[in-house]
Amino acid sequence: MYNDLPEEELRVYQSAQTCPDDFDSFWEQTLEESRQAGGETTMELVPDDLETLDVYDVTFPGFGGDPIKAWLRTPKNPRGPLPTVVQYVGYGGGRGRPWENLFWASSGFAHFQMDTRGQGSGWSVGDTPDNVGASGPQVPGVMTKGITSKEAYYYRRLMTDGVRAVDAARTLPLVDPARVAVTGGSQGGAIALAVGALVRDLSAVAVTVPFLCDFPRATVVTDAYPFREIPDYLSTHRHQADIVHETLTYFDGVNFAARSRHPAHFSVALMDVITPPSTVFAAFNAYAGEKEITVWPYNGHEAGGPDDDLLIRQFLSQRF
């Protein structure tokens, strides 16, 4: 059922989210520190029996130089460096198995799929631990991990990993560094929005039902998890609401969208209770670059599923 604003109101809705004065300097410093931490990017061919594709096990330096895992999937015997899709994973998932998610490589792209630190046990396996950050009280999941400090908050690390994934992909011989786009759904869409704002020379950004947008509204209009983790935390830490919401201003997709000028494709589902459509439109309406949005009136968090894949492929092919 519909549980949010009517579509005509969604198309003009503006988030009440604020942006801190030091938003840009915070992220510039974060990325500079992680790049200065260094680290090696390695790539090893995975033995398999895929007849048309190759899969490489990649390790690259993420936040603070931490080793982050990824898969690079490519067509066999490419004629030269390939246009590349860097993909980020939804909440609770990891990079999965080498032989999963073959759509992008089968379509002729290099596909760099980043693992998600500290996740990868919900619906898809992961291989990257999260061994840094605050160890204070939190509710299950990662939404409140370090949430009283922008420096310690979990998504500072994960979003930085997302930027460093683009850095790493561009160093690989099978990747054309001038033709790189980022994509993801839900949490993966949130990371793609952040990377779109923090990396200035991408070919495009494509996000489906992006998570982590419009925290002031999202935390009070849905009871669905993972957003619900934040109200759960504040229901016991009652006097920390102001500092929690201050932290979240540095990680809100609305504030990233306002800084991104790459061509962007969005997807939203009007029956989605996990990422309510108003929160997606909040980011879309704030987006500063060329943009388009596909609306799925009768879908929930799955949105357009394989139809979204096809639309994004068409969108990226035009931009590459």
From TrEMBL:
All residue ranges annotated as the Acetyl xylan esterase domain in the record: 3-315
Signal sequence coordinates: none
Protein origin, superkingdom: Bacteria
Lineage of origin: Bacteria, Bacillati, Actinomycetota, Actinomycetes, Micrococcales
Protein name as catalogued: Acetylxylan esterase
